[in-house]
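note to self — DONT lose this again. spent like an hour looking for the file last time. sequence + predicted structure for the chain T wanted, 191 res
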Amino acid sequence: MRLYMGLVHFPVYNKHQDTIASAITPLDIHDFARLGKTYGTKGFFVITPLEDQQTLVFRILRHWTTGYGARYNRHRKEAMDLVSVTSTLEEALLRVADREGETARIVATDAVLQKDRDMSYKALRRLVLSDEVILLLFGTAWGLHKDLLDKADHVLEPIFGKTEYNHLSVRTAAAVILDRLVGRSNRLENF
């Protein structure tokens, strides 16, 4: 499996649909790393052009990969070893291409149905299991900017619960998505 995740902090939208760069949430780094390690992804990119935010991520990574945290909790260290920081999506794609020897297919996520571009979980699962190189993008704040959605090869269909409420945290959405794509459940064939 050659699946990577990217958490985009720019360009994303705020609740007024203005283009912004969102702040890093340290919990996202921990949870995405642990999620990636649990489900066997090959890497997780924190994507932000903001130097102060990159510095924060590097500080967290140092603590858990070479500092006291690495000795205190080796399991967390293993997960945090998956994390990389890039300034742009293009930089993340270059790193994946360097590692894999080919360009990744970009699959974006969005909470809004993209009628002409949506890809089903079943179709994406087939691609992932066929050993296709995939970069699965998640947006922070109020979601990925249209420019990034337009760059994506596919947009994964949204997660719909039992109610009209549709405001999952990005960590929760990522966990649901990865479980649907590569989890061991027999129910996966239904997606």
